[in-house]
Amino acid sequence: MIETHWRPDEALSDARQQITPKTLCRLVERLHARDTAVTDRELKRQMAHLRAEISSVDAKIIQDLAERMNWVEQIGRIKHEHNIAVLQLDRWEHLLEDHIARAEKAGLDPGFIKDIFEIIHAQAIKRQL
User: Fold this and answer.
1) Contacts of 55 (CB under 8 A, 6+ apart)
2) What element of type H or E holds 52?
3) Running DSSP on this structure, what letter comes out for residue 37?
4) What pTM was estimated for this model as a whole?
């Protein structure tokens, strides 16, 4: 749903989420429908090959995450045995900065990498508790 008002600031409700009719027209003009089915045989073959490559990488990511969590659990046992806090905030902040810098060098969106590693870190903390 898109709300419009000729003067959004004066709208009686939801003023901050409304756009002008002129803006709506520009938005609609930029929309275009795309085919949902791939009918070209060669294009299907190319896409199938690329999807297989992606699936292979995804399998590696899963395997790497499983290996990472095994290491995390070992660190967790050591922390527990030596009464060390699970969360090492300085280390986490340094690692995150490093991961973001590596991501930028690899041409990846830093926000994307930050989100991924925050999820991984949260899981690592759970595993160590």
Assistant:
1) none
2) helix 41-81
3) S
4) 0.71
